From TrEMBL:
Protein's UniProt name: GTPase HflX
Family annotation (HAMAP family): GTPase_HflX
Keywords: Cytoplasm, GTP-binding, Hydrolase, Magnesium, Metal-binding, Nucleotide-binding
Domain annotation Hflx-type G: ranges: 198-365
InterPro entries membership: EFG_III/V, G_HFLX_dom, GTP-bd, GTP-bd_M, GTPase_HflX, GTPase_HflX_N, GTPase_HflX_N_sf, P-loop_NTPase
Family (UniProt): Belongs to the TRAFAC class OBG-HflX-like GTPase superfamily. HflX GTPase family.
Length: 428
């Protein structure tokens, strides 16, 4: 039912430059998408228009030119770097005598190839079904014919109506299963909130190096490759950060300009990790000449999924590809880390990232020297369980002289809930 590529398929690429900046797409990005899908690009057709043609998206003359090119090159696929309406796809297929796919269909196919987990596959299928539901008529010759139903079809129901009904049923079934997954994720988030474990979410334009960075700091072994949408399935790992303690790091799907709305809706459960994170690590490919535009596009998607207000730490990755660029932390006027420059591939500046995470997540740090009597053994154990003990000496009374360091919020909470008067043990 879906447009799926076979290995070795050959395509003609079509790119239109519009006068409206908001309608423009990136030709270099289309070539990367096509390469990621495993399709060979035989030729590229470019044209300029003030606005899309309602019938063919491009002009009728250009459509004839592409049809002739398909015949000359024996291409079996035409890929547009734009979103086409179902009627435009049908009209182009009729005149070119081969399959036509738009940018959304191409991205959907790449997602289908990359999804590995059960949840990821469900999300991709949901996006595909929603995309397909508007394109059911194409390629079917019997759909408008009324056909008596055996078991499923009612009297006088056309094949097209049956297909639409079956699609709706499958979509509803997937939505129920995804809702169950979403509830399971929410239970996990509630549990982390109860024990106050912060969540840090990696976001960024596709192919910015998020998964490579994720693997570098967690040893997770997540699939990483120099291609678009190498990672689809969300992965969570635990980190131990100085003065913060256990922290959850989430790797998420890469963003792209004009990300299809069906995909945003389908990946809502995944993107929830981004919405509810305490901090976003916005990874940027510093060697990409389009990095400013890519950063803007990521911010647009973050606003679209209601994550625009989450605090952000910029991570400028791949500094090894830029001449005379060294790892560093940039701070704002208050001295708070604003951005980290590093190379995940070459393991440069990773310690600076941990330093910035400590400062951004821990808030105010307090340090106290405590003289604990022997009966405070349980309190001593709590300090050790929080990884906050800096040094320890035994006292003549059989107790302990501890130097502890921790976030001020944790100290206040410990003082409030401890059965022993901890503050009375502070050495002045």
């Amino acid at each position: 039912m879906f447009d799926r590529y076979d290995v070795g398929e050959q395509a003609i690429l079509v790119h239109v430059d519009f006068s409206d900046e908001g309608e423009r797409e990136d030709l270099a990005e289309l070539k990367m998408l096509v390469q990621s899908a495993g399709v060979e690009a035989l030729d590229v057709v470019t044209t300029r228009r003030p606005s899309p043609n309602p019938k063919y998206f491009i002009g009728a003359g250009k459509a004839e030119e592409i049809a002739a090119l398909v015949q000359a090159t024996s291409a079996n696929l035409i890929i547009f770097n734009h979103a086409l309406s179902p009627s435009q796809e049908r009209n182009l297929e009729h005149i070119c005598k081969c399959r036509v796919l738009d940018r959304t269909g191409l991205i959907l196919d790449i997602f289908a190839q990359r999804a590995r987990t059960h949840e990821g596959k469900l999300q991709v299928e949901l996006a595909q079904l929603r995309h397909l539901s508007t394109r059911l008529v194409r390629g079917w010759t019997h759909l408008e014919r009324q056909k008596g139903g055996i078991g499923l079809r009612g009297p006088g129901e056309t094949q097209l109506e049956t297909d639409r009904r079956l699609l709706r049923g499958r979509i509803n079934h997937i939505l129920k299963r995804l809702d169950k997954v979403s509830k399971q994720r929410e239970q996990g988030r509630r549990a982390r909130r109860r024990v106050e474990i912060p969540t840090v979410s990696l976001v960024g334009y596709t192919n910015a190096g998020k998964s490579t960075l994720f693997n570098r700091i967690t040893d997770a072994g997540v699939y990483a490759a120099d291609q678009l949408f190498a990672t689809l399935d969300p992965t969570l790992r635990k980190l131990d950060i100085d003065d913060v303690g256990p922290t959850i790091l989430a790797d998420t799907v890469g963003f792209i300009r004009h990300l299809p709305h069906d995909l945003v809706a389908a990946f809502k459960a995944t993107l929830q990790e981004t919405q509810e994170a305490q901090l976003l690590l916005h990874v940027v490919d510093v060697a990409d000449e389009r990095r400013d535009d890519n950063t803007f596009q990521v911010n647009e998607v973050l606003n679209e999924i209601d994550a625009g207000e989450v605090p952000v730490l910029m991570v400028y990755n791949k500094i090894d590809l830029v001449e005379d660029m060294a790892p560093r932390i940039e701070r704002d006027d208050e001295g708070k880390p604003e951005s980290v420059w590093l190379s995940a591939q070459q393991d440069l500046g990773i310690e600076l990232l941990f330093e910035a995470l400590t400062e951004r997540l821990s808030g105010t740090i307090v340090e106290h020297q405590l003289r604990l009597p022997p009966k405070f053994g349980r309190v001593r154990g709590v300090f050790y369980s929080m990884n906050s003990v800096q040094s320890e000496e035994f006292t003549d009374e059989g107790g302990w002289l501890l130097t502890v360091r921790m976030p001020a919020a944790d100290w206040q909470r410990l003082v409030k809930h401890s059965p022993e008067p901890i503050e009375s043990c502070i050495c002045h």
